[in-house]
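sorry for the late reply, my laptop died twice this morning and i had to redo everyting from scratch. anyway the thing you sent over, i finally got around to it. pasting the sequence first so we're on the same page, its 206 residues, then the predicted structure underneath. double check i copied it right bc i was rushing
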Amino acid sequence: MGIPFPATLARAANAMAHAMPMPVPVPTAAPSAGPAGSSGTGAGADGGWDELPRDRSRERERPCKCPPEKGALVRKNHSMNPEPRRYQARITGFEYAIATDGKGRETAEGWNMEWDWLDIDFDGFQHSQCLLQEAKGNYDQFFKENKELKFPFKGFTKMQEQIAIQGEAVRANPPSRLMWYFETPQTRAYMMNTLRQFGVPSVHQS
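ok and here's the structure:
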């Protein structure tokens, strides 16, 4: 038999129960989704609000693996007209030099710094973008006004082979990227089928 509870105490306890509000669950603040395009940890990013946001600090510190970084800057002595040599240097930002004759006139001799990777020559390499580059100067000079070739030009055959070799190497080594730059539009159009076949992006940039 329980101990009798005085009526006055019972009334007091009942009054306190009504006077003191029951605690209400407070929702935990949702983690910020971050700016557009970022890998934020907002709702749904890591499985919902009930999960703790994943610690991405290690992911941010992890260096980006870029296979072409194992390549090397090399000096190449190509014979080409001065303008294509300048165009290549303008696209890549690499050093170059043009030889002159005894009268100070520019010649087709000279050199360009290029990027050698997997024993394959690339005109340029942008480390921050893991982007390999190939630049082609004014090859439109080999076309007639009707867009036909003036004569069988072996340079275009070599260019197609170069697209295939570079494209296959880059595709086999992600996240490597490759971009071909054309100073003139007709040459790019002439090479477009080969570029698409090997998945090589290109741009007309004068």
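The chain has a mean pLDDT of 81.
thats about all i looked at so far, will dig more tmrw
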